## 1
Amino acid sequence: MTAQQGIASRDHGHDVRRNILFLKGNYDAVGGAETLLGSLLDHLDPERFHAMLVMLQRNGFPDSPALLKDPLVVDRHTIMWRGVAAAPLTIPPLLRLIRRKPVDLVNSHDIRSILTAAMLAPVVDLPWVAHLHGFLGAVGSRQLQAFEAIAKLLIRRADAIVCSSEAAAAELRTSGQKNIRVVANGVSLPERVPCEPDRSALRVRLGVRSDAILCGVLTRLHPGKGVAYLLDAIASLRRTGVALHLLVVGDGEERPVLEKQAQSLGLEDAVHFVGFQTDVARHIAAMDILVHPSLRESLPLAILEGMAHGRPVVATAVGDVPKVLAGVGLVVPPADAEALAAAIASLVGDSELRRTMGEQGRRIVESRYSMAVAARALEDIFDEVIENKRNHHSRSGGTAASAEA
């Protein structure tokens, strides 16, 4: 029996759950893609969909806590990833998995999974939705730029491409991509905005006084995230006598470089590197201002998380950030430490402005950028792509290659 025949034989009414095969690799640092996928798995409608998560696992790289789910809710599998040259070795175990449990759609979430889905497509002809979380482009390494160029070619085989911003969609269209859908990133809303006890708890451990202003950044530590410019901005403000601290939540290849930069700027006691944290909410609660100084983005989860927790946001004008923060946040040019310092300074001495911006930002997230809203939009795309594929096969009378191969 072919994989496509196995799918076509099932009743696809809404009373039967559809099996979605999510593909994701693990990397040297955990970032927005892992967080978003983990949240999507939590919000997927269990009456309509069943999640099958396949991790393309490379030894020595960490696993994301966001993707460790209850096995009764998410059917998780691991396939070892041995590098690009050995990528075809991922296909036989995937085919065995599909034989055991028919799959209705493949959803890829990074370059590694795009390559795997593209190799799987001609074998089983399953519907494929490629979810792009943003390409680094020129701010990435040459090797990463080469992989991104290959990924852009491969996703032309996908039945739909999902990106999180209109800016990213426009860039994809200029490179000839079609079937692009924009679904804005979403975050889970906390039940309440953090109060003073929440703000104080972590600050005591960090040694930050209650009357000091604590800025925070949530990011993977990579040159493209612009944290070096933020360190320069903090140093500039502290030289003017502002009691300012910076909390850096995240890890990555640039951490040693940034720690050395902080030391050279005399910020050893003012900048707090805490690495990757699973309890992001507790760290946002300690912040007075969330800053996102990235050089290139689509729609960063970090600013949405800050807004959801009622924190004012200062961010660079990249991707759809200006659209999201219009009227509720401060936007500055990328790679401009002076502009970052000026925006932060305008909030430091105005607690009422910080409170107002925080309240307005939370309302925006509630109405437009919750994970519940994003999940429903993605579910509709899954349904549409599955039905389009079925109708195409019904009209053509075609079948896919055998999964027994």
Note: Residues 371-396 form the longest helix (26 residues).
## 2
Amino acid sequence: MEPAQRSISDIEAALRAAASDAAKYVPDQLAEVRRELGDLKAAFDRQNYGAVLEGAPAAMSRVQALASAAEAKKAEITQALGEEWSGLAARVPGYLTTIQSRIELLAKKSSRKLAAGIDLDAARGSLSGASSVWSKAQASFAAGNLGEAVTTAKSLETNLEGLAGTLKIELKAPPAA
């Protein structure tokens, strides 16, 4: 009884350590491992300690594989988000600068014809808000929250493209380094 209980406890401890990332990155595999652990517990409850001792090594191997799979998926997603962030971090500051320059140009008296029909005060307000959102995205990135940083920056990029359309300019990505 004691070796069987210890085996189940060891599997539960390993599963607790892996469960958070596994739930996020490989939930189907986590459900399967939990089902298998439930089967071992049911065998234990039926006092079928031999079945527990026989099944425990395979269950522990699956828990360890689960942890590895979750870590690999996490690394894959983190890399993809990092690459996406790099592109956004290369484009968005330039977009902000381009829009600021366009607003300054349109604000000049010599540009009245170009500025016809454009609400420059609203554009300035939108640009100010966009700068704040960009700061939020950068803070999320600095805090290690890549998902939030990328989501915020992508939304901002879409908003800046709309603002650029209102200002009658086309945003161009900077040349690749």
Note: The chain has a mean pLDDT of 93.
## 3
Amino acid sequence: MKKFKFYLMFLLVALMINTSFVQVFANNTNDVKVLEYSVKEKAKKEASVNLIKQGIVEKINKEISKYNAEYKSKILTDSEIQKMAILKTTKNEDVKYLSVNSVKPLLSSLSLDLGDKNPQGTNNISFDNFDTGDIILVHDGFCPYGYYRHAGIFDSSRYRGLDSRCFISTEWTPGVVLETPKLYRNYDEAVGLWIPLVSYTKKINIISYLSQQLGKPYNILSSKSNRNEWYCSKLPWAGYYDKGLDIDGDGGYWVKPVDIYNSNKTSPFAYGY
């Protein structure tokens, strides 16, 4: 009986020590991640200032203005997108047909490229300072919803290099997916955006929520309130919106990638061309 009590006490003490060790290890691991996050936040702040000093931000803004002026009659507005959504729901017609024939007759000679085709460009954006919750936007040729054609939000826990699937975004099929950094280098231009003064914990929670959307269907006409269908730029917007930050620059029906760039809550920290 004494021997049994001894073994029982031994097991209880061992369990307590082991539990304490696991807790300490977990706390230390989290502290390291928070420290790494703080270091990258500081690096991004410096990088953002440098992009301004080097005239890169001014260059981007001029290119966007030039694009908007050149394609003014061809860029879809939020009201036109909403009209397309209504027609799509009531008539169950194809999105491309509606956009060309029901909304913008001037697009009749063009194909409405919504990002389903492989991009043809190349850029040299660095992912060194990317961390959880950062957003990437890419430009490649003409796109009817604005200068930036595609968007993704970064998950640092999945990053192992250029071939790792660490950006949460969407494709026509199967919908919400994980994409590689290498994919985003296949565009003419790329910009990395960060949202300053948002805690590491909040950004982890954002990525956790968006990860739960993986596999859900793609619908470029889905409203902001529809959380069962997604398009690329709606994902980061929804993640931050649920944490009290609206990163839609114009507050319209649609969250276009360029709207996230134009938000006063986002700041460029990386650029490639």
Note: The first helix runs from residue 2 to 53.
## 4
Amino acid sequence: MKSGLPHASVNVTPPKPLQSSRSTYRQLDRVAPNLYRHRVSGLYYGFHKVAGKRRCLSLKTADRKTAERKLGEWLRDLGEVDASNPDATLAVLLENFQGVRAAKSKSTARTEGGILKEFRAGFPEPIRGSPSSSCEKGASRPPDPHGRRVPRHGCNDTEPSSRTTVG
């Protein structure tokens, strides 16, 4: 006993590990599609996958009917397009994207700048009307100068060999 204290009198309990944010997920039971209930608190949570990412929302209620109503509203909101600017053009959206990403590193900015340059070159004119109606009518396909039928390879009507790949 080099410390001078008897070993038996030292009662050290290891600290409890910090609870991770996943501990709530472990307490959830599925009660319906996209609807989960916490075992301890009884509160309901909504889960939904959007663009490959899992979204979670506490519905802040222990009543199932209220939870189902709030879940339905939340799922509708997730599926809606932002109606605050219905006239947003592709150019405006790309400018907004660049503004949001301005603080990224030089290499990221250079990479994304090249991608945006290629993207803008692929869409020189604004798209008018609904894309599905353009495809059905064949409006985007230029007529063949020799009068031959031009095969369709999709909505863009480009030959597979003339497609540009970014690499």
Note: Residues 130-139 have pLDDT under 50 and may be disordered.
